[in-house]
C-alpha cells in the first residue's frame, strides 16, 4: 500500500514537473507570465522548460501574421464607423465642405507581443477609433473629387502614418502594414446630385479636350499654310532676283559692246527690235528710201502704193 502511495506521489510529481515543458511552433513566439508577472524574455520556436503548470503561463502569438480590420460602409449595409447609432455619423467632411462615406480596411502585424497582449484597451477598438480619426483628418484636407478618384492612394498613405503614430503613442504594439480604401461615395441622399455633378465635370473636360484638339489642328493648318506662302514668296523673290540679275548682266554686256562699237551696237539693237516687233503686226510695207508712204494702208484702205507692198 505504501509503495502504491509513493508511486502515485512520484507519478504526480513527475507529471507536475513535466507540465512545465512548453512547445512553441515555428511561426509563434511565447510571452511568459510567472506568478502573474510578465517575464522580459520571449520564447522563440522550439521546446522550452519552465515552471510547472500554475506557476508559468505562456501566451502564444504569431507576429508574422497579417491581421485585418474593416470598418465603415461596405456598400450593402450602413454600418457606422464606430458602431454609433446615428446614421449620419458615417459621413466624413472633405476640405471643400462635401460629405462622403467610406469603407476602410486596415492591415497590421504584432510588433511588440507584450504590449499587444497587455494593452490597457481593446486593440481592435483602439485601432477602429484611430482609423476613424485618421480618415477624418486625411479627408478634411482634400477636395471631394480627389477623395473619390485620383487622391485615394494619398488618403490611404496619410491615414497609415496617422494610425501608426496613434498606435505608438498608445503603446498598442502593432505595425501598420497597409490601409486600403474600399467603397468611397457620397451619402445616399445626395448621390444623384453628385452623379450629375460628376457627369457635368466629365462633359466639361470633354468639351475642353475637343476645343484644344480643334485649336491644335487649326494652328497646325495655319502654320502649314503660312510656311507654304512663305516658301512661295521666297521662290518668287529668288526668281525675280535672278531675272533682274540676268537683265542687268545683259545690259552690262550691251553697254560694254556699245562702248566698243556704237554703230554695230545700234544696228544690232535695231534688228533685234524689228525681229521682236514684226510678229506682232498684221501687215508690213517695205518702201524705197525717200518714197512717200500712204498711211491709209495701215487704216485698212488701199492706196496707190499698194502695188509696191510686200506681205
From TrEMBL:
HflC and HflK may interact to form a multimeric complex. GO terms for biological process: proteolysis. PANTHER family: MODULATOR OF FTSH PROTEASE HFLK, STOMATIN-LIKE PROTEIN 2, MITOCHONDRIAL. It is a single-pass membrane protein. GO terms for molecular function: peptidase activity. Residues 19-198 form the Band domain. The lineage of its organism: Bacteria, Pseudomonadati, Planctomycetota, Planctomycetia, Isosphaerales. One of its GO terms (cellular component) is membrane. InterPro entries: Band7/mec-2_domain, Band_7, Band_7/SPFH_dom_sf, HflK. Residues 66-88 are annotated as: Disordered. Pfam families: Band_7 (PF01145). It comes from Tautonia sociabilis. SMART domains: PHB. It is found in: Membrane. Gene3D superfamilies: Band 7 domain. It comes from the Bacteria. This is Protein HflK. Transmembrane segments: none annotated. Belongs to the band 7/mec-2 family. HflK subfamily. HflC and HflK could encode or regulate a protease. Keywords: Hydrolase, Membrane, Protease, Transmembrane, Transmembrane helix. CDD domains: SPFH_HflK (cd03404).
Amino acid at each position: 500500500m505504501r509503495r502504491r502511495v509513493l508511486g502515485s506521489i512520484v507519478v504526480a510529481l513527475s507529471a507536475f514537473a513535466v507540465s512545465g515543458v512548453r512547445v512553441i511552433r515555428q511561426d509563434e513566439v511565447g510571452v511568459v507570465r510567472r506568478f502573474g508577472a510578465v517575464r522580459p524574455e520571449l520564447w522563440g520556436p522550439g521546446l522550452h522548460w519552465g515552471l510547472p503548470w500554475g506557476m508559468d503561463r505562456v501566451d502564444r502569438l504569431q507576429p508574422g501574421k497579417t491581421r485585418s480590420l474593416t470598418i465603415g460602409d461596405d456598400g450593402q449595409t450602413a454600418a457606422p464607423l464606430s458602431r454609433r447609432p446615428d446614421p449620419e455619423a458615417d459621413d466624413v467632411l472633405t476640405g471643400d465642405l462635401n460629405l462622403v462615406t467610406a469603407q476602410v480596411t486596415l492591415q497590421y502585424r504584432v510588433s511588440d507581443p507584450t504590449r499587444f497582449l497587455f494593452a490597457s484597451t481593446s486593440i481592435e477598438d483602439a485601432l477602429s477609433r484611430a482609423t476613424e480619426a485618421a480618415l477624418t483628418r486625411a479627408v478634411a484636407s482634400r477636395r471631394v473629387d480627389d477623395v473619390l478618384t485620383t487622391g485615394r492612394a494619398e488618403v490611404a498613405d496619410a491615414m497609415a502614418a496617422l494610425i501608426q503614430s496613434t498606435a505608438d503613442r498608445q503603446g498598442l504594439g502593432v505595425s501598420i502594414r497597409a490601409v486600403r480604401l474600399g467603397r468611397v461615395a457620397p451619402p445616399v441622399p445626395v448621390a444623384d446630385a453628385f452623379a450629375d455633378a460628376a457627369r457635368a465635370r466629365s462633359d466639361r473636360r470633354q468639351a475642353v479636350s475637343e476645343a484644344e484638339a480643334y485649336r491644335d489642328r487649326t494652328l497646325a493648318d495655319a502654320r502649314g499654310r503660312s510656311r507654304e506662302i512663305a516658301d512661295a514668296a521666297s521662290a518668287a523673290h529668288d526668281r525675280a532676283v535672278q531675272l533682274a540679275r540676268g537683265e542687268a548682266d545683259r545690259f552690262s554686256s550691251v553697254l560694254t559692246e556699245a562702248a566698243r562699237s556704237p554703230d554695230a551696237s545700234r544696228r544690232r539693237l535695231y534688228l533685234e527690235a524689228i525681229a521682236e516687233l514684226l510678229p506682232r503686226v498684221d501687215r508690213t510695207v517695205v518702201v524705197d528710201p525717200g518714197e512717200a508712204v500712204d498711211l491709209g494702208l495701215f487704216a485698212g484702205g488701199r492706196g496707190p502704193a499698194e502695188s509696191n507692198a510686200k506681205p
